[in-house]
Amino acid sequence: MRRFATLWVLLAALLGGCSTLVPAPAAPPSTPQAALDAWARVLDRFVDERGEVDFPALARDRADLDRYVRHVADSPLAQWPDGPQRLAHMINAYNALSMFNVIESGIPATHAGLNKVTFFVLRKLDIGGRAMSLYSFENDVIRPSARGEPRIHFALNCSALSCPALPRVPFGASTLDAELERETRAFFARRENFRVDQAMSTVWLSELLDFYPTDFVPVAADSLLAYANRYAPQPAPPGFTVRFTPYDWTIANSRRR
């Protein structure tokens, strides 16, 4: 998987001249609290209990999403103090921009194949006055700002079915640690992300852990299984073989059925 990721980045670099700037919506300016309230309404109204989004309904009634995305564009990241305040803002911003990008892309059925390159790398968004892809925002900004905190990977939602579920409330600075803990435990409670095959002495983990192995090992644990065992409802024997469940890049659109 890591080899594939490298090839993906190289392909994106070759196609760099094909990148597109997705302009921020023309929404009225907002205070930080008013913008966050708008984002909270989006999550409450359009995200279901599975963390999937009613994208068609949101596309028809997108004023609150546009208001928050406009706020993300107008607010330099340095506006927030370094630490939980900035990290919570960046997580909310990433999740909102992913949702916004799906709508601006015409609500595709999947990110699979070359769609990943287009969606995550070639389409650039206005983030604090900087044109940046979702790939760059996550890997060049959010991950370094997290300072080795791997639980951020279970809070960032890329709008695909195998992504961590999108919570129905925004992340908050004062509650961020508890929220990251909650989302990490919820992630490993899902059978598709942590499944033990006793007969084959194998543990099936989400491929998400194989995307960013150095964020988990040895920073947070001795192995990927040791890390997952901290949060799984029923830990697996440490000597079991680890395999990865292929990522489902289908858009988490609650109307897809």
Question: How would you sum up this structure in a few lines?
Answer:
With 257 residues, the protein is mainly α. It has helices at 2-14, 32-46, 55-60, 63-74, 84-104, 115-122, 134-146, 176-188, 208-211, 213-216, 224-231; strands at 20-22, 123-127, 130-133, 194-197, 202-206, 241-245.
Written account of the structure:
It is built from eleven helices and six strands. It has helices spanning 2-14, 32-46, 55-60, 63-74, 84-104, 115-122, 134-146, 176-188, 208-211, 213-216, 224-231; strands at 20-22, 123-127, 130-133, 194-197, 202-206, 241-245. The strands form two sheets. It has a three-stranded mixed sheet. Strands 4-5-6 form a three-stranded mixed sheet.
List keywords for this structure.
single chain, 3-stranded mixed sheet, 257 residues, mainly alpha, 46% helix
> From the helix content, strand content and strand pairing, which structural class follows?
mainly alpha
Average the pLDDT over all residues and give the rounded result: 93
Report the strand count.
6
Q: Approximately how much beta-strand content do the residues carry?
A: 5-15%
Helices and strands, in order, run as HEHHHHHEEHHEEHHHE
Tell me the strand order in the biggest sheet: 1-2-3
* Low-confidence sequence ranges: none
Task: Give the N-to-C terminal Cα separation.
Answer: 29 Å
Overall geometric form? globular
Give the helix level as a range of percent. Answer: 40-55%
Count of runs of 4 or more consecutive helical residues:
11
Oligomer: single chain
Q: What is the rounded Rg?
A: 18 Å
Q: Main sheet, how many strands, which sense, barrel?
A: 3 strands, mixed
